[in-house]
Amino acid sequence: MTAPNRATLWGRTLVDELTAGGLEAVCIAPGSRSTPLTVAFAEHPDVTVFSHLDERSAGFFALGRARRTGEATALVCTSGTAAANFHPAVMEADQARVPLLVLTADRPHELRDSGANQTVDQVKLYGDAVRWYAELPEPEATERKVRNLRTTAARALAETVGVEPGPVHLNCPFRKPLEPTCRPGDVSEAFGDTLAGRGRSGPFVETTSGTRTLENEQYDALVEALERAERPLIVAGPADPADLTTLDPDTVVRVADRLDAPVFADSLSGVRFGAHVDAGDGASSSVVGGYDSYVDDLPDPDVVVRFGASPTSKPLRHALRDADARQFLIDPAGTWREATFTATDLLAASPGPVFEGLLERLDAGAETTANDEWLANVQAAERRHWAIRDDALAVDTLEDEPFEGAILASVFECVPETATLFVSNSMPIRDADRFARPRAADLTVLANRGASGIDGIASTALGAGSALDTDEPLVLVTGDLAFYHDSNGLLAVDRCGVDATIVVLDNDGGGIFHKLPIEEFEPPFTEQFKTPHGLEFEALAELHGLEFERVDPTGFEAAYQRSLEQAGTQVLAVEFDAEASHRRREELREQVRDAVRSTRDA
Amino acid sequence: MTAPNRATLWGRTLVDELTAGGLEAVCIAPGSRSTPLTVAFAEHPDVTVFSHLDERSAGFFALGRARRTGEATALVCTSGTAAANFHPAVMEADQARVPLLVLTADRPHELRDSGANQTVDQVKLYGDAVRWYAELPEPEATERKVRNLRTTAARALAETVGVEPGPVHLNCPFRKPLEPTCRPGDVSEAFGDTLAGRGRSGPFVETTSGTRTLENEQYDALVEALERAERPLIVAGPADPADLTTLDPDTVVRVADRLDAPVFADSLSGVRFGAHVDAGDGASSSVVGGYDSYVDDLPDPDVVVRFGASPTSKPLRHALRDADARQFLIDPAGTWREATFTATDLLAASPGPVFEGLLERLDAGAETTANDEWLANVQAAERRHWAIRDDALAVDTLEDEPFEGAILASVFECVPETATLFVSNSMPIRDADRFARPRAADLTVLANRGASGIDGIASTALGAGSALDTDEPLVLVTGDLAFYHDSNGLLAVDRCGVDATIVVLDNDGGGIFHKLPIEEFEPPFTEQFKTPHGLEFEALAELHGLEFERVDPTGFEAAYQRSLEQAGTQVLAVEFDAEASHRRREELREQVRDAVRSTRDA
């Protein structure tokens, strides 16, 4: 079918190329200037279109989907402020290495800076936050230009999943007619069937992207250090989306076992949960998760191998900073993601292959040099941590001393074996990191830990949920401020057909500020930091047609189980006093530390 | 009082300097890194702090206030995606020339690009959308650095209201302690009383900003052209905030009267409403507002004098494009804001002084050369326009043929003599421009016509409302998509204590797309363009504690009057069928055109 005009040809060719390259989904916000793109996406059989009304939420929805799949999701908006509304999600995609393909429609060149309506400067709009920026030339139905368009589209998609995956921005100027209105002579018949493609399936340019691995001799320093280590430690930080598919946690565990090294597995690392975790009490495995409580009371590790982003646990970050250790940092992009500036060796390679190479090279038969007590001590501390947590979760105790961490513990403990959990920034992710025990279950745990904003939380979660099989539950745990911040994102439940169990930890404001010294300064503490709002979220749930239940901390597990077994989306709101929760966290941490110290000193 | 540490000194000095320079209000979103700024603003007696939870809404609220006052409003956020959430408002402020001072807290230099949490690249975050970008150096309690800080603060404020007013971005890195925690020796006693100011009131550097006026001989071409014109036309486009204070519409009318020229006054020009408008039937004045209907059927003007931004009326823009006329464009910034590229003369000077100069130079006694019929024809067409509109508003007619424009007509007609009206983009502003009759009332009419987005509408309106005397009503007219888009902005009603009458024209989706050719293409019209959402806004109103009433088009005036007389905030939702409204608009336009044509041809 010959395109009725050049704008339509342009949109169709671009979308044809992107889908040939494997693009499966696009989030579109309505607009006029983007009509050629919208129409082309809507008519293409191989791409799922998610329609959003708020571009900020659209951006985060696309981010969430790309985060869950590891593959690019596209975004389309019209010209003007619409494009600026994508900026927060683009920023997060940059920091968190999430492949995102941003297509912003623009007005033709001559209208820029002319005072024309809805015309702003979209050139390099997201600055250095994108891996690649390109501006499409004006649509024209010539072989050369269409070839250029296909090449640009193929490249854009490849750049989102390059050595350092991330966002790519294509700015797309169009002139009228934008609709598929027939304009005789605008497009020759030759473009009818081929859209100037190669007449075969697959992309115009097939990108084969190599993996960054170490040469033989590049392992030497690492192997030698580990073989001599007395207190080796593996730290698995929050995973990049690519790690979740290219890194087999079982390989990490086997390397750890060969070294008698513990693995400090961040709740977002992809290593804390999975079949590789010891199915027993979860604490005889080398994979541990309670270190936030006890890392201060362990002896320093002497060799650290770290991969993933900066760990969620601040005590761990500080321990790594203060340790007198040789620290190897494995990063596929080699971008020096190391904010304590204590790493001694940077290995610019993919962690998956590096661990496979290590397993081959570490002598399976040899005695490990690791101090006998090192791993045993860590595991003993780990057992203390979970025992104390379990005591705190007992119904009687919880009734007297409710705290937000108890909800995170239950959320992870009661969820079925296969599930995706999205945890908001601020306190929920910290509580998950502290109170979610390693488990032999296929849990995909996600958060926006790139820039760690509290914006776009619901949308990111629902975007991740849009990629799940129908029988895999999606759970979102959020604080009240984050829930309010992306209240518009809830529209996706209905519009995009994604169900979730949404747990709102409602402490009426910014509970995290109770952790900071500003708590002591009143005013302005309550009015400018804690910022209580008194919002009753039941009305918000009603606006979006969601079931709403207010539950007590002790009644949470039952309500949560019910929701997991139910269809539809339920919002479970649990009220807490932020200050009391914060005190309880500190108490529990002190209890673990006391126990660890008394064992150590005995 | 000596500052307890350098971060506190830095925050206090910056805020002290900004308030000395006249800054009266700041919008703050809670965050940790911004603590020194937040604390300093909160403790300063001369500045009003508006606390917001969503940075996007905060940005638009500040924009609205600055738009209404013409003076800078400041914005404060923490590091990370928070700053990106300001981007849409910054973009609008750029395009609409609104003074906005954006203060983004940042982490210290060494943490940038280190993988540290909540650390992103904020350097020149808004690209060329700001008039000035500067990064503060690290806080240090030395005379020279503090002098630099004061100079930077004074300059930042001055740049927001320079030759082309607009946004300014100061990126502000801080290191811990961020709170006013005492750190002995960090700040010497000398900074206690003075904060290194000059020990006198007023800013550290007093900026005296000249006005751009024309030299004597620079009037020659303009005066000569006008004195010879047969069909002179003055076009008052949407006003910059500065125009609303520096341009006296009475002077424009007096010039027009001397020339027998009509003034095509955009509803946003500051010229359509005011004491200068003839108090009679509003159509014997030279100020006319119905030209959208009849401009196509007038003879071409031969000399056009235009000021303000590009007119809202598309028929007017096209008529100017197609006219064989000498077109003078008066723009204080001289930025060639002229998207039809037909202007022949650009006068880079402030419109106010130019019209005063014209009035002096146009010979008061001389016969005007204007064609006798020119003004009379325009005024006759104008009378037709309003007569036909009035017929359409008659209750019986309206009952049979309701249309959105009727609401806009009533909104402007029934509002008290002094009021501020904020009108959303998309259809409401177009309907206001068509159906709001010139009136001798002190109406301040505002919209976000810089980039013309439908984001941030409620926040911008409430921000404008925050600057009003308590007895001046604030009215917001919005479509349903815009109402949903900035639903978070409604929190400001309670948190910032601003009341409004909020009129929601609910046609369940993007009614404007019925105006476009895409309407003919189904699919994807309904799903991707019209995007019906079925949201029941009553729940949204309830979430924010607002009164809600669903009214019929014929019952609107009564409900509107009640709301204007009441305290508190009322949401009046009026349901429409977008397609029917669009057809009705077209019908009315055709009726006026037929009437004008039949008179002309008679």
Automatic annotation (TrEMBL), chains A, B:
The UniProt keywords, alphabetically, are: Magnesium, Manganese, Menaquinone biosynthesis, Metal-binding, Thiamine pyrophosphate, Transferase
The Thiamine pyrophosphate enzyme N-terminal TPP-binding domain, residue ranges: 12-124
Superkingdom of the source?
Archaea
Entry's EC annotation: 2.2.1.9
Instruction: Give the pathway annotation.
Output: Quinol/quinone metabolism; 1,4-dihydroxy-2-naphthoate biosynthesis; 1,4-dihydroxy-2-naphthoate from chorismate: step 2/7; Quinol/quinone metabolism; menaquinone biosynthesis
**Substrates-to-products reaction catalysed:** isochorismate + 2-oxoglutarate + H(+) = 5-enolpyruvoyl-6-hydroxy-2-succinyl-cyclohex-3-ene-1-carboxylate + CO2
Co-factor: note: Binds 1 thiamine pyrophosphate per subunit.
Cofactors demanded by this protein:
Mg(2+); Mn(2+); thiamine diphosphate
Write out the GO biological process terms.
Answer: menaquinone biosynthetic process; organic acid metabolic process; sulfur compound biosynthetic process
Extract the CDD domains matched here. Answer: TPP_PYR_MenD, TPP_SHCHC_synthase
Give one Pfam family, short name only: TPP_enzyme_N
For the keyword Magnesium, the answer is yes
Q: Which Gene3D superfamilies match?
A: 3.40.50.970, TPP-binding domain (3.40.50.1220)
Q: Does the keyword Metal-binding apply?
A: yes
Give the Gene Ontology MF terms in alphabetical order.
2-succinyl-5-enolpyruvyl-6-hydroxy-3-cyclohexene-1-carboxylic-acid synthase activity; magnesium ion binding; manganese ion binding; thiamine pyrophosphate binding
Q: Which residues form a coiled coil?
A: none
Q: Which family does it belong to?
A: Belongs to the TPP enzyme family. MenD subfamily.
What's its job? Catalyzes the thiamine diphosphate-dependent decarboxylation of 2-oxoglutarate and the subsequent addition of the resulting succinic semialdehyde-thiamine pyrophosphate anion to isochorismate to yield 2-succinyl-5-enolpyruvyl-6-hydroxy-3-cyclohexene-1-carboxylate (SEPHCHC).
Spell out the HAMAP family in the cross-references.
MenD
Question: What's the protein here called?
Answer: 2-succinyl-5-enolpyruvyl-6-hydroxy-3-cyclohexene-1-carboxylate synthase
